[in-house]
Amino acid sequence: MNTFNETFGFIFALCAGVMILAVFFTALGYLKRGVRGPGVLKMKGFVREGKRINVHLAGGRTLENFQFVGFTEQNSAKGVIPYQLASMAVFECETGSRAMVRADSIRMIEEIDAT
Asked: What is this structure's pTM?
């Protein structure tokens, strides 16, 4: 009986430690996501940094003289915003306000001269 307690006591302690760490890191992830909010995933090389662009949308509308910021991160937005808003392109105008556009509604993105 003593051998049984020593062997399974060690295994129980190891399993309890793993479970405690899993609960801790899960709670830490929820806390980070709640404090930070949805993030923006930046893509290098897609549109040159600081370049102004025109975005042509599927409905015939055009967003003119915007700057590409990135895409909303799906992992960081989980539980914070609806699923439909999780994969959107983020653009910024000259005044600093941002516009989020569904990525599947973008027909074309063109760089424009800064003149």
From this structure: 0.55
